Amino acid sequence: MWSVWRTVLEENEKLAQARLAAVEIFQQQIADDAKILKNHKLQGAKKCLDQLAVIQKELQVCVQDVDKTKKLYFDEEHSAHGVRDKARDIEEKLKKKKGGFFTSITSLQKNSAKYSTKREQLDEKSTGARNDYLLCLAAANAHQNRYFLVDMQLCMNSMESGVFDKVAEYLSLMGRTELLTCSAWQNSFTNIRDQAKQLTREYNIQCCYLYYPVLKQHIQYPFESCDNDPVETITAEHDSAAATLSKEARRWATRIARENNVIRESVKKLQIYNALRESGQKVDPNDQNGPDLETKMEEMKQNIRKAETAKAKAEARIEALRDGGVNVDEWLQEAESLNVQDIQRSASSLSDHPSSDSFYDSDFADGETVTVQPPQVEKQQDKDSVGSQQDQFENAEVDGEWGRQRMSSCTVTERDVGVEVDELSDWLGKMALWHHLFFKDVVIFSMASRL
C-alpha cells in the first residue's frame, strides 16, 4: 500500500512538472508571441489604413473625372441631337421644294447650309466629349480593378500580418502540448491502476508486520515451575482438590451458559435497535428519555464483546480442567439445560471459594461472578472424632448460605452491579469458611483437653 501511495505521489509530481513545462511553453511560445503579434498588427493596420485612404482618394478623383466627362458628353450630345433634327427637317423640305407661306426656297437653302455647318461643329464636339468620356471610363474601370485586385488585397495582407498562420500555429502547438500532457497523465494513472490491482490485504499486513514486529508478537504465558516442579497440568491428587476442581468445573460451565445467554440477548436487542434505526427512529420508543439508538447499539456491541471474552476465558478454564481429568462434561450439560432464571439463580447462589492461598483466589481479581457451590460428595473422616466438627461445619454453612440468600435477593441483572454483588458474596463465603475453621479448632482443643 505504501509503495502504491509513493507511486501516486511520484506520478503526481511528474504530472505537475509536465504541466509546468506546458505552461512555460504556452507562456513563451504563445502568450508572449501573441502580444508581439498584436502590437505588430496594430501598427500594420494603422499604416495600411493610411495608405488605403490615399488610394481611395485617388480613386475618388478618377471617378469624379468620369462624372465630369459624362456630363459634358451628355450636354454636347443633346445639343448636337437638336441641331441634327432641325437640319434633317430643312433638307426634307428642300427635297420636296416645298416652302412655307412666309418662307421661300432661298431662305430654306440658307438655313440648310447654316444648320449643316452647325451640325458638323456640334457633332465634332459631341464626338470629342464622347471620346473623353470613354477614355475616363476606361481609366476609372482600370483604377477600380487595380484598387480591388491589387491595392485592397495588399492592404488586407498587410493588415493581417500573418495572424492566421500564427493563430493556426498557436492552436497546433496548444493541441500538441495538451496531447503530450494527457498522454503523460494516462501513462501515470495507468501505472497507478496496475499497481493498485496488485494490492492485497494479506501482503500489506505482512509488510506491516515486517515494519512493526510488535503487532505479530502473539504473547502466550508459559507455566513457570517453582523449584523444578515437574507437574504442568491441573491435578486432583487430594480429596479436597478434587472437590474444589469439581466446584470450579460447575462454576465455569455455568459461566459459559450465562455468557451465551448474554450474547443471545444482546444480539437480539442489537437487531431490534438496528431495525428501529433503519426505520428512521432516533431513540427507542419504549425509552424516550433514554440514550439514543447509536449509544444503545454501541453498548450492546460492548456487552457482546465482553461476554465473548469472558466466555473464551471460561472455555479455556474448562479445557484446562478437562486436561486435568476433571469431569466437566457433566456440568456443561447441566448448564446447557438450565433456563435463564436458573442460570441467574445459580450465579447468585454459588459463592464458596477455597480457603487456601492458591491460584483459585486470583480468579476473582477480574471481577468475575462467583458460580461455585459446596461439593456434593465429600469423603467422611473419623466419625468418632469429627461428629461435633460436622455440626459446627453445618452451622458455618448455614451462616454462609443465609448471607448468600440475602445477597441473591439483591442481585440484579446488570453487569456492573453484578460484579459488586459477586465480590460481596465471595467475602461472605470466605467469612463462613473462617467461621468453620475457627470452630473446628475449638472442637479439637476441647477434645484434647478431655483426653
Account of the 3D structure:
This protein is mostly helical and 451 residues long. It has 2 domains: 2-189, Helix Hairpins; 239-450, no CATH class. Helices cover 78% and strands 0% of the residues. It has helices at residues 2-96, 105-160, 163-197, 201-211, 239-278, 293-323, 329-337, 340-349, 383-409, 415-450.
Q: Gyration radius, to the nearest Å?
A: 63 Å
Count of helical regions: 10
Largest sheet: none
DSSP strand count? 0
Calculate the terminal CA-CA distance, rounded to whole Å.
85 Å
Please describe the structure with a list of short key phrases separated by commas or semicolons.
Helix Hairpins; 451 residues; mainly alpha
Question: How would you concisely characterize the structure shown here?
Answer:
The chain has 451 residues and is mainly alpha-helical.
Give the SSE layout.
Blueprint: H1 2-96, H2 105-160, H3 163-197, H4 201-211, H5 239-278, H6 293-323, H7 329-337, H8 340-349, H9 383-409, H10 415-450
